[in-house]
Amino acid sequence: MGLIKFKHAFRNEPTFFDDFFSRDTFRNPEFNFNKSVPVNIKETDKLFEIEVLAPGLKKENFNIEINQDDLAISYSEETEKEERDETTKFVRKEFTYNSFERHFTVNEKLVDVENLEAKYEQGILHISLPKFQKEEKKEAKKVAVK
User: Which helix (H) or strand (E) holds 6?
Assistant: First the structure.
């Protein structure tokens, strides 16, 4: 079995690293930063847990909404910072805007959306989606005829 270069395995387009040092990435109209945040999804017998890696963010700026079968997790923060030095008449003013949004499809027949819980600790947003507890099927009972 021969080795195949990864970039040619699926398509013949150049990859990001092919000409990394020869082009200006920030002025390239084809280059689009992915503002998506890393997410882990875990499933246990009792729940689904979504972990969103979001270090250094403020928990009050998270927004979690569930609408029918769509779970939307978003974050939005806008800050303004101004520095002044009267001795040199130096003024610096910066605006920053930080945001992201992720959507997940939720099976409402499987997940109890009314009991969804979220907590933010140590830079990770944990969202717990409990599953509906299935009623245990009772074994068939044999009835003796008298």
Answer: helix 6-10
**Which residues does 52 contact at the CB level (< 8 Å), separation at least 6?**
37, 38, 39, 73, 102, 124, 125, 127
12 assigned to some structural domain: no
- Domain span at 67: 37-130
Specify the number of domains making up the chain.
1
Q: Is 107 within a domain?
A: yes
Q: Where residue 59 sits, what CATH number does that domain have?
A: 2.60.40.790
Could you report the per-residue pLDDT of 20-53, keeping only the tens digit for each?
444 444 444 443 344 578 999 999 999 999 999 9
pTM for this one? 0.61
Of the candidates 133, 132, 129, which has an alpha carbon nearest to the alpha carbon of residue 42? Answer: 129
Query: 65-110, pLDDT tens digit by residue?
Result: 999 889 999 999 888 888 887 777 778 878 788 888 999 998 888 8
Instruction: Tell me how far apart the alpha carbons of residues 54 and 5 are, in angstroms, rounded to a whole number.
Output: 34
Q: Is 34 helix (H, G, I), strand (E, B) or coil?
A: coil
Per-residue pLDDT of 129-146, as tens digits, reads 999 887 767 777 788 887
Assigned domain for 61 exists: yes
The answer to whether residue 3 is domain-embedded is: no
